[in-house]
Amino acid sequence: MDIHEKLKAAGLGWMDLNVDAIIAESASRKASPADVLARLLDGELEARRMRSVGRRLSMAKIPVQKSVADFNWAWPKKIDQDMVKDLLRLGFLKEKGNIVFMGGVGLGKTHLASAVAGEACDRNLPVLFTTAVEMVNNLQAATAVNGLQKAVRRYAAPVLLVIDELGYLPIDRKGADLFFQVISARHERASTVVTTNKAYKEWAATFAGDAALTSAILDRLTEKCSTVVIEGLSYRMRNKARN
Questions:
Q1: CATH numeric code, 68-242
Q2: Rounded (5°) CA angle 196-198-202
């Protein structure tokens, strides 16, 4: 069995593909055997990390992967850029803190939430991205087949859960209760990012007008929470705004 067969048998695919080139290049600069081994191991570990990150991204269900580097900071009339960039360092995850991106349509809330989710995936952390309506509909469907506990665990488990588009469509009383169950299950256990077009004082209208339940949701969500308020015109309407 030659070296390539042994590397394949050991599951060291990257090393199998690159060992000859690295040995040849290292010989030309008279690198030590320890240096050669270190380069091969570093390459294999990075390849495994990238495969793992790819799996995390696939499982996260981020609709469109976005980077903060692509965000147009000059467009919103109001946004705390320093706060957002600090949040992208993900320190809030250690504190089991939350983020709420709040503002009108077309101001980049989903873009920033996707960027946060992508950063967490890049650190090989479990992430799930959903919309508020999709989550509630899935929970209601699970209730109909006696699978609610399992469904709640699915949303409670990730280190980071992103709930997009809260407030765009109203949620009925049962849906509001299910939403609360998820927030309650994650409280002080894991971090949640919410994007919304509604100020906190308007959330009761989203949750079937139930002020008590809304208060309970807000109490848990905002206990350790960074609220990023974004103001301005929709970026998607920028061409019309110039006319």
A1: 3.40.50.300
A2: 140
